[in-house]
Amino acid sequence: MENRKLNISLLYAAVLFQGMVFYGPIATLYRRAHGLSVYDITLIESISLTVMILLEMPWGYVSDKIGYKKTIVTCNMLFFASKIVSWKADNFFMFAAERLLLSVVLSGLSGCDSAYLYLSANKEDCQRMFGIYEAMGSAGLIIASLIFSVCVKDNYEMAAFLTVVSYGAAMLISLFLTEVMPEAEERCNTGRTMDSIMGSFVSDKAFIMFLLASSLLTESSQVITVFLSQIQYLKSGILPQYMGYIYILVTVSGMLAAYSHKIIDRIGEGRTIRLLFFTAFISCILMALFLNPALSVLCVVLMRVSSSVFIPVSMNIENRRIKTANRATMLSAYSSIMNIIAVIINLIFGKMADINISYAMASGALFCAAGLVLYAVWESGDTKMLNK
Question: Which of 70, 102, 279, 347 has the maximum number of C-beta atoms within 10 A of its C-beta?
């Protein structure tokens, strides 16, 4: 039990350092300064997501075979390497190489970190643990954003170098994790694993609607809060030197993920999720219609809150749904489905933003509305099944 508590603390510390992306407040402006258009940025993201889709299932199977700790350590080493490439990137191909390396990392960690934390925590405490895990990444961003705003400012190279240092620290911390993988006899061989996964999908086909809804909300929030927000701010009259402070505000709002379980306890899971989708939808509509600085900041904050509170709930729902022993493989299968949608979302956002930022925000509103409908249909059908 003590080892499991230490594992949780170490995982929190690692994700804290990985949250310290010091160039985060000007990520889009930095890439545009090196000649990339918004469409170039989202094209690279889509290529990265496609590679992730191809690697998700193989990585999930490898994780279940070699152990979650070894997978996390390997991925964190590659994470560290990707930030070195990012530090030296100065053209489209270098940025693409960094994202491709990152796609290898994220496909490996996807499902694995969630499964590791799930097996380290008490099952009744998982919602809270997932919330804190999400919040620690936000805490890292807050620290990095403060340092950027006060010390780094427009020194892009220094921001990238400090990010390399923080990811190196995360890699070292992960070396001290201990394994929490299920006993070998509980796991399946390759053929049985795939049969188990296919059987799970066949018996629970409707859950795909939840996965699609999740992707529509989280990817819309990711693209808008990380990339498109900076263009929205510029169009609204906000100068770049203030974006670091705004980024801090947006990131602080992401800390609400730690209270996700309390919100669920008070409002209820279904009502909370519907409210989050609706809030994101309204935020996108307002940004599409108005280029007001205060309103733009408020809406980006609400987008981050919606996604941050939703992610721990989503992680818990996905883990609850799994009946097979190969947890990481199943979570990777879920992630693959969501990433397919994310690829399309990224390309649409990029194309719309290059035409007009308002068109991109209107697209976000459509995505969030579609997600709300999909979730409502799934929840209604799932409730009926439980009541039978």
Answer: 102
Q: 357 φ, ψ to 5°?
A: -60, -30
Contact 138, 308 (CB under 8 A): yes
- The values of phi and psi at residue 23, to 5°, are -95, 10
358 occurs within a structural domain = yes
Say what angle helices 327-355 and 357-387 make with each other, to 10 degrees.
150
Per residue in 230-289, pLDDT tens? Answer: 899 999 999 877 888 898 898 888 787 778 878 888 999 999 999 999 999 999 999 999
Domain residues for 312? 9-176+199-387
> Does 190 fall in a domain?
no
Calculated CA dihedral for residues 189, 190, 194, 200, nearest 10 degrees: 20
**Hey, what are 320's tokens?**
């609850």
pTM here is 0.75
Q: DSSP code of 183?
A: P
* Residue 77 to residue 73: CA distance in whole angstroms: 6
- Residue where the block lists tokens 């795939």: 194
* Pair 19, 144: CB distance under 8 Å: yes
Domains identified in the chain, total number:
1
**Single-letter amino acid, residue 54:** L
**What totals of helices (H) and strands (E) does the chain contain, helices first?**
17, 0
Q: List the one residue out of 183, 172, 187 whose CA is nearest residue 60.
A: 187
- Whether residue 274 is contained in a domain is answered as yes
